[in-house]
Amino acid sequence: MRLSVQGIVKRFGATTALGGVDLDLAEGEFLTILGPSGSGKTTLLKVVAGFEAPDAGRVRLGEEDVTEVSPRQRDVGMVFQNYALFPHLTVAQNVAFPLEMRRRPKPEIAKRVTEALALVELGALSGRLPRQLSGGQQQRVALARAVVFGPRLLLLDEPFGALDRKLREGLQLEVRRLQRRLGLTTLFITHDQEEALVMSDRIAVMNHGRLDQVGAPAEVYARPATRFVADFLGESNLLEGEARGDAVAVPGFGPVPVACPPGPATLLLRPEALRLDAKAAGLDCRATGRVVETIFLGLSAKLRIRVEGGPEVLARVPLRPSTPPPAGEGATVALGFAAEDVHVVPRG
Ligand SMILES: Nc1ncnc2c1ncn2[C@@H]1O[C@H](COP(=O)(O)OP(=O)(O)OP(=O)(O)O)[C@@H](O)[C@H]1O
């Protein structure tokens, strides 16, 4: 179902946790709120779930204004980081709980629990207690419990936070498949930018209680709307320069031919767009630099380079068996980039 959040303000004493948040989710959309610790992500989720009342603004589900509606009546499924399963209930009893609360008939409960457990492939463990399950299995039970009653909306607050990397990646794909299959509108919270890029239809980047940008992952990555977004999402070189209309003068690199209103300017250059094969065609800007550090990452290497007469930059170069190893510390390198790979970060 559609979710619409308008003008949400939430204060805790002198702290403004949410400073006017507007957000719309289309039916079946998976939207991730991405932001650093303390930026207001959980508070927004609590307002949507009904656990916190906003000081201003409205929350709508479909056509219904639910701002004053109790959490129970909102029919929202939720999964949190620390699996809040009932320890004394079996897997099946945990999943049945939301249906018992809604006083559904016994045969319907049995049928739905079986279906929900099959969805997360835990049918065989239905008689176990939570403490007899792994962390990943417990989160899948929590997920089954969140969707078993056919919620209007699914809220996920860092559900993989406590899991190791491999398990997390498996569950990310599983959640996404399940969400697509059920066509569930989903609001997901994470501070992990990679997770946000992998999972989302759209990402909303939160900065001090406000959304700096809402857009598709590729859009937010390539064309960040603010300096904060450019810095927070992915690795970045933020080159400071002086714009003269048709070019921005960047120390060490010279004029970068991009359109930008006169004045101080910030250019975003992703590490993978910085080329160390200086003979490559189509490079508009070139510089010389000294390698400060080389980090081997398997498929690629990351180099920190001090540009002569300019800033320190980060380059990421792909590694293939046929290419020579990347330049080591202390080496002098020629580097460059194409103007079309540069994004002018809007001011303000
Ligand atoms: N119940 C509360 N009482 C007072 N201040 C609160 C309360 N809940 C949240 N805050 C404050 O509101 C701000 C936003 O907190 P919130 O938990 O929403 O951030 P978050 O982005 O979810 O952070 P994290 O990723 O660490 O969970 C913080 O400054 C926090 O200290």
CATH-assigned fold name of the largest domain = Rossmann fold
Which regions are unreliable across 5 or more consecutive residues at pLDDT < 50? none
Count of individual domains? 2
Radius of gyration: 24 Å
SSE-based structural type: alpha+beta
Number of strands: 19
Spatial order of strands in the largest sheet:
6-7-8-3-9-10
Large-scale geometry: elongated
Question: How many helices does DSSP assign?
Answer: 9
The fourth-level CATH homologous superfamily of the largest domain is P-loop containing nucleotide triphosphate hydrolases
Q: Quickly give the CATH architecture of the largest domain.
A: 3-Layer(aba) Sandwich
Strand content: 35-45%
